[in-house]
Amino acid sequence: MTTTTITIACISTADIAKAKVVPALLSVPSISLVAVSSRDKQRAQTFVDENCSKDKTNKCIGMTHDEVLDDKTIDSVYVPLPSKVRNAFIIKALNNNKNIYSEKPFGGTVNELKSILDMASKHNLQWLMVQCGIILYVQKKWKRYYTIVIS
Q: Mind listing the pLDDT tens digit of every residue in the chain (151 residues)?
């Protein structure tokens, strides 16, 4: 059985990335954390130097958010951005063919959520959402959840 490696970037240098997400991603053999991004590339690189380079085999680098979106070798992005900017970034990421892992309230309004779900489905991408410790896996089979949300 062959294992596929998923390349992922963390779209933030937030405390949750440092304390929880980056260590978890670095511990999974089938996941390759290839980038951490920030609006400031130097801040992202400093985060990588302090939190991702303990394992010398890790090839993670600091990037800007736009560089991550433009990088065709990155499969997925973890998005812990604040609520007011998260949805816009998720939409940009989906438009750049990135699978999404996000948390906190998602979708904003029902119409925003519907739009994001439609976009993920249209691009045949996955959106893993965590809300209060509950994981919702959105893929082609999201119709039941979608029906509950819009009714």
A: 556 788 999 999 988 888 888 888 888 888 889 999 999 999 999 999 998 876 656 689 999 999 999 999 999 999 988 877 888 899 999 999 999 888 766 667 778 888 888 888 888 888 776 654 444 444 444 444 444 444 4
The DSSP result for the chain, as a single string, is ---PPEEEEE----HHIIIIIHHHHHT-TTEEEEEEEESSHHHHHHHHHHHT-SSTT---EEEEHHHHHH-TT--EEEE---HHHHHHHHHHHHHTT-EEEEESS-SSSHHHHHHHHHHHHHTT--EEEEETTEEEEESTT-HHHHHHHH-
Write down the domain spans for the chain.
Answer: 1-80
In CATH terms, the fold of domain 1-80 is: Rossmann fold (3.40.50)
pTM metric for this prediction: 0.79
